[in-house]
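User: Show me sequence and structure for the first protein, then do the same for the second.

Assistant: Starting with the first protein.
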Amino acid sequence: MNNMVTKLSSVAALLGVVGAIGAGFVQYGKVMAKIDELDNRKAVINETVDLSPLEERISVLEVDVIDRINEVEEQIKPVDLTRVFSEIGKIREQIAMLPEPANLKPILEQLQMLEEYGWELEEDIEQLSKDVAIISKENEVQDVMIEEIKLENSNPLGN
């Protein structure tokens, strides 16, 4: 009887091993079928991407930039001050030729004020030129940012 129990135990163990191996082959078959299914599937990456919100945002940014440029350009009034300074020089020459007893103080004060106004105009023009240069650089940066956004959204592997 002891011999029969041993044989039955051996057969049961052998059936368990065969069952486990069979189950392993079944799982292997399922995995391979899934791999084949995935291989045969046609992948579509970013078939359609709705870029209209991005394009609207870019359009708004472009309009803002154009408006800012127009505001700055409206403030810039090209002024050639060479004639003003030339006239000041002529007046100084005429003053120098006046006889000594003449009261030149009011004329010199007005001339000084005119000259200071000329320098202020020149400083304003320089400041406006700097502002235009800054806005120009800001526009370049915004153009780069817009191109980066377009590139990022055109990338099928992007966010």
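Switching to the second protein now.
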Amino acid sequence: MRRIAIINQKGGVGKTTTAVNLAAALAGSGQRVCVLDLDPQAHATTHLGVEPDGKSSSMYDVLIDTRPLADVRRKVGERLWVAGSDINLAAAEVELAGVVGREVILRDLLLQDEGAFDFVFMDCAPSLGVLTINALSAANEVFIPLQPHFLALHGMGKLLETTALVAKRINPALKVTGIVLCMYEASTRLTQEVVNDLQAYLDRSRGTHAPWAKARIFTTRIRRNIKLAECPSFGQSIFAYAPLCNGAVDYAALAQEVLGAGPTILSGRVEIDDLSRAVPQKDKSAQKPERDAESATTAST
């Protein structure tokens, strides 16, 4: 069971969008997937069509009362579950302050569910508090959604420092395995500069003992797409809301890359585009002798 924490202390970089739509894409590929919403704003819960009313069992009950995850999660689609959040989770930071072993509560409860799913995604709040530390302690992988802007890149140092600290003291198995570029605009010079700087930083860490020493920037880029911003208000993933849009294409390709198959959908589109550009040229050159022959016949008559 791959336990993946999706974290970035900067808000608005695509954490919830990635957690929900990547989970939906993997579920559509035949994987059993559960999303744990560890953000008191409950955006992943809402995105998957569950109302965070503060009355139903949630991740608050899991962390505070050690309620089994099986009692909290709900099935929201074929092979897709969510353990929801609500505003009560905001109090967990304070209530857990004096609890011994508060950093590993989620890890211990996930061990009871070992093998129940192929993937567990933990959607974290935009902070590095107790909730995020619980996710890092329970995870064996970290995905970092990143908007390719300078300020987003600037904050990665603190984030990586936190993962290193958790790996050293609590969870030696923790590795940063992937960086997902969200709201990607290939046409801008800034985007290319940020990607190059990030790749250079990762290359310098190769061969070290840092948790991100084998991290990669996923080949699939999540392009800026208004449909990705619209679908949460309908309580749907991008595949239910607009399955043919760029956002759905990108997250489907990312899912295949996470599974190890590579970004097959995007590469297929490139090949088709190249072919469509080549065919008209070939036809044009093939038709030219015919037109010349017709002209010659007309002139002779």
